[in-house]
Amino acid sequence: MTRSINIIVLYHSRHGTTQQLARHIARGVESVESCQASLRTVADIVPNDDYSTTSPVIELPELKQCDGLAIGSPVWFGNMSAAMKHFWDQTTSLWIAGDLIDKPACVFTSSSSPHGGQETTQHSMMLPLLHHGMMVMGIPYSEPSLHTSFKGGTPYGASSISKQGHSGLDKQVTELAFAQGQRLAKTALALSSLHTSSN
């Protein structure tokens, strides 16, 4: 019997766009048999009365036990948000134990303008993942929407241009987020099967 693969989709969202991306990534994860997605958020540092999320705040033991991870943050001056950075600054115990080594991971983001720093923000989120020894993956150009989307999407991960007060994501953006989640889940499943067969 194949065990269930658990992928955590961890995000911080100020106005809801990054959360929407997270949900489409989770859909992609759960399109793969035996894979489930757990949507989680990080504790906010700056109070935000304009937005609330129904996702639970992540706890470190959950991260230790996951089979794969997707993390997303809005662009804050070309970097991940302070709340997301603060969370990763608390993961030293996992780093010392090597709990995340060889687990697959990916990143996603949203910005308020087309040139708002999406790719540098994605790079900033990759850094702690690499230090933890995770296997960071992006979106390959075999995904047709990566060639044609003008509303978001990079080879580093799913992205979107968020407009405050506007709801919904561009169709190609959702396709890329779905594909990214699906690829992450398939990789986690393959790595789990490889590990099982070698034992």
From TrEMBL:
Lineage, uppermost ranks: Bacteria, Pseudomonadati, Pseudomonadota, Gammaproteobacteria, Vibrionales
Name of this protein: NAD(P)H:quinone oxidoreductase
Coiled coil: none
Family in the record: Belongs to the WrbA family.
Listed NCBIfam families: flav_wrbA, PRK03767.1
Occurrences of domain Flavodoxin-like (ranges): 7-185
Cofactor names: FMN
Organism listed in the record: Vibrio algivorus
Tagged with keyword rRNA-binding: no
UniProt EC number: 1.6.5.2
